[in-house]
Amino acid sequence: MSKIDDQRLIESLHEGRSEAFSEVVRSHYEVIFRFLVHLSRDIHRAEDLVQETFGTAWERITSFQGKSSMETWLHRIAYTKFIDGHRVMQRAAKLRESIPTSEMSAVDPFQLVLENDDARNLYRALDELSPANRTLLVLHYLQGLSYREIALVLNEPNGTIKWRMAEALKCLRTLVVREVSINATRRTS
Amino acid sequence: MQPEEQVDLDGFPESLERRLRNLPQLDAPDGLEARLLAAVPTNELIAIRNRMRASRVNRRLMFTWVAAFAAACLAMALLRPKIEDLVSMLSVTVRPGQSETDHKRLGERPDEDLQIVSRFQDPRLIMNVETQSFTWPIHQKSPLMVSSKIPDDLLD
Known about the structure:
The complex is a heterodimer of chains A (about 190) and B (about 160).
Chain A: H1 3-14, H2 18-40, H3 43-59, H4 70-96, H5 117-128, H6 131-142, H7 147-154, H8 158-188
Helix pairs in contact in A: 2-3, 2-4, 3-4, 4-7, 5-8, 6-8, 7-8
Chain B: H1 16-21, H2 32-39, H3 43-94, H4 100-106, H5 110-120, H6 123-127
């Protein structure tokens, strides 16, 4: 989308035109859904979070000034929604205690789309990463956001993001190697 | 800005970064788009909401004005006697030789003002003459004692 188109879209959004917001929903909902599935590892929760994200975006549309891209802005709202939801779930899990603390659902949403062992190993390694590291890698490699955009989404300095990204990659590499060796042992036995 | 591609150490032909980028993505569930679009309010709803918001703002503004006016009236009512006193005092001190008609013209209380004027015009004060010092006890006649008994002729 060109700058003029962006500007026109922002003006329409500020005027409260529903067609403009429908356009935003159509062009971004899949990206935001994927991001939230990666974070939550639960399709149903991701769906709920997508709805909440766009609901909040609509409420606060007048605060969007176009300083960042619409996608970055939506990612930020989605991330905040996920963190809020995650905190609520952790609190509920602490209260109940019998429920496992992991936020993952019993069925892995990615099992169906993974065709080869390599992709499966990679996803499993991603799962084992801490949520903070996983968020970083997902934002950069799967969602295609730049370091500057990630810094805006996570509200952290650019330098910190670069350093944390390198650390997250290092962790992922270790986990992938471990996954590969485990699989090799399984096959031989 | 993309990170530098590194030589893969885990035995795969592609680097880890490239493999991450090429990971298969999940498709959004059917009907999610329709649900999201259905949640977007229509232009009519937006117009109604905006009107309601505007009327709420107007009402709030009106209440603020009414409250401010009421507070000003209350303050005036409470401070009026003091202000009047002050005004009369000032008018007396500035023009001590004012006549009673002048006071009436100004709508002030002339009796009080005249008392103040007489106090100011006390020759002892003007001449700076020392008054007699006060001594204790005061020799004063005791007040007349009046019987509180009811006369017999009143009790029929």
